[in-house]
Design goal:
211 residues, mainly beta, 1 helix, 9 strands
Length: 211
Amino acid sequence: MKKLSVAIAAMASLAAPAFAGGLTPPVVESEPVAAVPAPAPVQSWEGFYAGVTGGSATSGGATYKTPGSADTGFDMGRGSYGVFGGYNLQRGALVYGGEIAAQATDFNLDGAPGKFDNMIDLKARAGMAYGKALPYAFVGYSRGDWKNGDGQSNGAADGVNYGLGVDYAVNDKWTVGAELMRRELSTDFDGSDGSVDTNFNTVQVRAGFRF
């Protein structure tokens, strides 16, 4: 009986810590969690900008339309240079705004004396900033001084422009870029019932400064 009492007392002393604090759970080592890299900061494009541009007509031309006669078409080529300026607004990666460009052009017809002397382009632009690049689309209004040749001027040919472009931030102030533009313009032919439609594409490079 005495031995039984001693055994019961020993078991009680061993069980007491378990009831008091519970069993200690085994230690499980967690796997290390790889650090997630922070996303690259979005380049700021908001504010005024201005710059210079140069380009060339790559395809398209002019079509002379005279009532009672077949349409006559001519290819268009050569280049232009000028200046541009605009303002961007930015909401996160979305960048949008307006731009105006003035160009001295040498867009001449191949095989005919018609040509553009000057061109004004107004554009509404919208794009998404990606790193230091800003790809964008635009649509707007163009107006140019059109001459049929021999000093004859039809006044202005006007219509729509649209296209795609990309600007790249070299640093906080300077940018470079490229643009593909389609212009679809028309004018009366020397005040008669005829007309001249000029639909052509241009490729141009840009260098800008952000204020």
